[in-house]
Amino acid sequence: MERPGLLLAEDTVFESSDAFEHHEREMSPRPTTPALEALQALIERWRVAFDQRDQAALEEVLAPEVLFQGMGPQLLVGRQAVLEYYARIRATVRAQARVLEALPIGEDALCGFVMVAFVEPGGNRRLVRVSITAQKRPGAGWQIVGCHASAPA
Fold first, then answer.
1. What's the pLDDT score for residue 69?
2. pLDDT below 70 — which residues of the chain?
3. H or E stretch covering 21
4. What's the pLDDT at 76?
5. What's the pLDDT score for residue 28?
6. What is the pLDDT of residue 153?
């Protein structure tokens, strides 16, 4: 079954359309940490740039050497490859995102997990779980250096 514009594997199965809200309800409140705040801010920058299809803003959140495993079979290497991947997603698709967890892995690095819902016109949602590695860089701030997406179980 083809899902035009979303670049998803043919056998990808997604949870029901209300699954994002279910995950929202099931997440218990947790204390805010610097890593969590940093990842939330980075993901919000990504979400706004994605929704607006703002290539310059997307470039700012992606490290030049980013490793990116989207829902397709290919590992993408480099900012330009990721921008080309995003360019093939219909412009009417929007993203909702919730950071599930974030941990520091060094003074200027973190890893975390994000639940993303790609919302099509009419409200159809496709959930994706994303693991992120980010690094804080001089002059650039926090950037995504690694990203792996998978369909929720």
1. 97
2. 1-30
3. helix 19-26
4. 97
5. 54
6. 73
Cα separation, 104 vs 111, in Å, equals: 6
**Phi, psi (rounded to 5 degrees) for 25:** -70, -35
Q: 55 — phi, psi (to 5°)?
A: -60, -40
Q: Which of 99, 102, 73, 97 is nearest to 85 (CA)?
A: 73
Rounded to a whole number of angstroms, the CA Rg of the chain reads 15
pLDDT score, position 24 = 53
Taking phi over 0 as left and psi of -120 to 50 as alpha, with beta for the rest, 122 belongs to left
The distance between the two most distant Cα atoms of the chain, rounded to a whole number of Å, is 45
Give the 3-state secondary structure of residue 143: strand
3-state helix, strand, coil in the chain (%, to 5): 30, 40, 35
Sheet strands (E) in 57-119: 62-69, 75-77, 94-106, 109-119
